[in-house]
Specification:
Elements lengths: L16 H10 L23 H13 L24 H17 L6
Helix pairs in contact: 2-3
């Protein structure tokens, strides 16, 4: 498999992730076809993958730290990704990443 640029944008809701992803998209990076559509809160669109965000939100919920709750910004427990209850979600995230890698032949974010 040929090497190609892959960029992962990480950040909390309303922290500028959509703006950064839109700049990457305008620079030629593919963002996939399953993006959140524009709405009243972000008329330009979100530029974020629905499936990836769904998995991330379920990880937060499982850890008892939903992004919209009072514990949403607390640090995660040490080695959280190794916890038995999280393992299926980590595997789901890995499968999503594998599909995205297989779908794209150029730079993507």
């Amino acid at each position: 498999m040929a090497e190609r640029p892959v960029i992962v944008v990480l950040g909390m809701h309303r922290s500028g992730t959509s703006l950064l992803a839109s700049v990457l998209h305008a620079s030629g990076f593919s963002l996939g076809q399953n993006l959140y559509p524009p709405d009243i809160h972000n008329p330009a669109g979100y530029f974020e993958d629905r499936e990836c965000m769904s998995i991330q939100e379920r990880i937060l919920e499982t850890l008892g730290q939903p992004w919209h709750g009072e514990k949403g910004m607390l640090p995660f427990p040490p080695s959280w990704w190794k916890e038995e209850r999280i393992r299926p979600l980590v595997q789901e995230l890995e499968a999503w990443l594998g599909r995205r890698l297989a779908e794209e032949d150029g730079p993507w974010a």
